[in-house]
Amino acid sequence: MGQANVIDMLTEEHKQVDAMMDTYDGADVERRDRLVHEIIESLTKHARIEEQVLYPFIRAEVPDGDQLMDEAEREHQEAKDAIAKLSDLSPDDPAFDGAFQALRDGVRHHVEEEETEVFPKLTQAADEAKLVELGSRLAQAKALSTRMPRPPE
Ligand SMILES: [Fe+2]
Ligand SMILES: [Fe+2]
After folding, report:
1. Cα separations (Å) of 25 from 12, 92, 118?
2. Distance 111 CA to ligand 1 centre (A)
3. Ligand 1 is a single-atom ion; what residues have CB below 5 A from it?
4. Residue 114 has pLDDT above 90, yes or no
5. For residue 115, how far is its CA from the centre of ligand 1 (angstroms)?
6. How many CA atoms lie within 13 A of 83 on its CB side?
7. What separation, in Å, do the N-terminal and C-terminal C-alpha atoms of the chain show?
8. In whole angstroms, what is the distance from residue 80 CA to residue 32 CA?
């Protein structure tokens, strides 16, 4: 690979996590437990590398970037809160399902805003070479976060 553009990379991750969140509905309790752990891990990593690499760039370079990123970071925080709530519940708890649905709805809303509002504005503000450079920084941040997981916040 090597020449991946940051928007393509993040959009691909969105698709992967969306597919994982879709399989929840047909899964039994034991499978749900493992699945939700995987989803949480993917979402946490995804949000962290966006916050490290992409969001500061958007704040600095995209018109209305601060406003867009205030909203995006607020939505990341909501997802973190939903994850914390979900992590406190056992998968056979009657509240687990609702807590997962709340996380899924919030993530889908946030992803839609990124893909329909944030990424198009980023494309207007940065040329392909810049998007590829951000892509390689994103890949580095991802590799690093895989090797050295941070303690939960
Ligand atoms: Fe995000
Ligand atoms: Fe994202």
Report:
1. 22, 14, 29
2. 7
3. 50
4. yes
5. 10
6. 20
7. 33
8. 19
Which amino acid does the sequence have at 7? I
112 CA to centre of ligand 1 in angstroms: 10
Give the distance, in angstroms, between the CA of residue 55 and the centroid of all CA atoms in the same chain. 12
Report in angstroms the alpha-carbon separations of 140 from 27, 54, 58.
Answer: 34, 13, 18
2 Cα: distance to centroid of ligand 1 (angstroms): 23
Q: What is the pLDDT of residues 38-83, one digit of tens each?
A: 999 999 999 999 999 999 999 999 999 999 999 999 999 999 999 9
pTM of the predicted protein model: 0.92
Indicate the burial class of 10 (C-beta count within 10 angstroms; 0-12, 13-18, 19 or more). buried
Domains annotated for the chain, with CATH where assigned, are 6-147 (1.20.120)
Contact 141, 13 (CB under 8 A): no
Spacing, Cα 1 to ligand 1 middle (Å) = 23
What distance in angstroms lies between residue 114's CA and the mean position of ligand 1's atoms?
7
